[in-house]
Amino acid sequence: MSQPQFPLRRVARVALVAAAVVATSAMVYPLARDRLADYRANKALLSSMDGMRPGGDSWEAFTALQAQERRVMQATGAKAPSAQERVTDQERKWLLSALGQGNLVAAASLFPDPLRQDDPIYAPQRFQAIRKQAAERVLTAAEAALGRRGDAAYSDRWMLHAAANINALGVDRPRNPAQAAMLYEAAFEAGDTLAALGAAAMAKELGRKEDAYRWALRCLGPCQTPGFDLSVYQAGLSLQAITRVQRSAAP
Description:
Elements: H1 8-50, H2 58-76, H3 83-100, H4 104-109, H5 128-146, H6 156-169, H7 177-189, H8 195-205, H9 209-218, H10 230-234, H11 239-248
Helix pairs in contact: 1-2, 2-3, 5-6, 6-7, 7-8, 8-9, 9-11
């Protein structure tokens, strides 16, 4: 005896319902997941803020809250937790306070190296207004540092590197590769070995091939970003030029 067959209309109706369930699940699940992630981030962010004691060093408080915020956002995968606005407001207050206290490290951190991916400030786009206010201070401090060559203060290396970044990027001031190159070189001389990468890139852009190769040779260890290739700076140089530069590359 043959098995009873489902009417075609019933089969189509079941298939349509199943498709609707799958489509709804595909839309609802990501939304629920995102809301759960934001909920967890909100709890963790508010807990972090409640655990921060008032007073003390504004820059240390800022960096501590930034570090905790970064960890929370990465751990939860949250996209838009409402508590982040409150966290940002507090971070702005501490950052402004640090700048008001004359903290030059705080000022320099607003201008990360465009050639590197280790931004010192998490989500720096939230501090653009403060960045504009600090640009003049960094450039002034760098100018003063240039006058102290041979007797550099500890913060000079940061000021010179940050000022070089300002000139190399061209966001806060008109772009000036020649000025950027000079400042990267001065930062290196003041003890910032990471500045050799910027000096090499600017010299290459300016067509100073031997200088570019010389600074690339000085870019060692942490100075080298992922993808750093010494042969890029060596290209176009004669064997004699390569030998001459290698002999003069020692700091």
